[in-house]
Amino acid sequence: MLTGTPFIPETITVHLGAPDSPAPNVTLDFPSYIKNVASSEIFPTWPESALRANIYAITSFALNRIYTEWYRSRGYDFDITATTQYDQKFINGREYFENISYLVDELYNDYVRRQGSVEPLFTAFCNGTTTTCDGLSQWGTVTLANRGYTPYEILQYYYGKDIDIVKNAPVKTAQPSYPGIPLEFGSAGNDVRSLQIYLNRISRNYPAIPKIPAADGIFDDATVQAVRTFQQVFGLAPTGVVEQSTWYRIVSIYTAVKRIAELDSEGVRYEEVMPVFTEDLSIGMQSDEVRMLQYYLAVIGAYYAAVQPVEITGYFGEQTEKSVKSFQRVFGLPQTGMVDRATRNDLYRAYKGIAESVKPDYTAVALYPGTVLREGDSSSYVRIIQEYLTFIHDTYPNIPAVNNTGYFGPITRQAVTEFQRQFGINPTGIVGAVTWDSIAGVYSDLKYGFDKRPYQEPGYTITGG
Prior knowledge:
By secondary structure, the protein is mainly α. Helices cover 42% and strands 6% of the residues.
């Protein structure tokens, strides 16, 4: 969950014992969990201001555990434990006090954070009698409430003046922060940017890990080197690929060095979690992300008979929505017509499988390899794009010709940038799906006189999911 701004999960899974004990897990809706803990930790006869302050603290503590994936990043299959030795008291099956239940219904989607940070504060607390701590004293809240302190003033007394209470946070289904597909050289997206931010912060504590100069969401050579060094430092296979175990080790170390699960957290700033790519795509949107979606759907639709083809326009209209729904139906996803993270991952997997299986001589123009190409890269795909650009140069002389060396140097970058300017694409000098498709399309039109892009050719189809 560290990859975005916090929200209230629909459910929470509680382990009914110490983390390594064989105790069972129980999953329940989040408000019921807060009611259970509040009814187990505090007394219903306390002043309302004290009850409210404690409910804020209980909620924020639980949300911090979920936000940092404190247990899940360590391989456990639960979000929090039921014991005060590690977390907060939960008694499975207990009844709730009526006034506490009423207050939780009002407050369960409010939480405490530091000003300037996005994560729920690790609101440490203790009873203040048999145990004391640096955080909130439960019995101390009663004393302050009797003095006329408001809930916010009580929280400030224990956690400092620089706190906010976030009100009415949205309720969503919690998803693992791991994107579900390995991240590797050429991958791009918000998950890659999060990875780069994590590694750059970790490198301050572990200087052997090289800094990534541009945390731009593109998995480049510098990111490969940083990942590989991280894996070496922490005893993982140094592949340079971020699969699930590497991802969660990175999340765990990032949480530790920033002390996100501590009262004195360094804090997670909004700019660290702000997406640089559009997260979810839906009808009415118009962008390069939509064009990339349509390209993937168009190619997949050429090989999967049950996936409706789509035109690549950059506008998400009814045709695109129907195509998305048909893809979701084939791949067993909820048929929403919206492209969320799960749909995006399955789209990429399906497309990548096609791109890797289609022989180069099967189509007149090559499919996008599924990996971003940028300056410094070397591959056969760079050579292909150089060949296309050089051919295009004969008709558009402002686009420089380049030697087909397979190395993406400054001249190739200039040629790509000029092509993008010529054809109305953001002139980044980077070749992603949209730029590849446009270059391949212009090359096809000039060389063959009509579109011979793979998704417009009749070919074999795949009928299964």
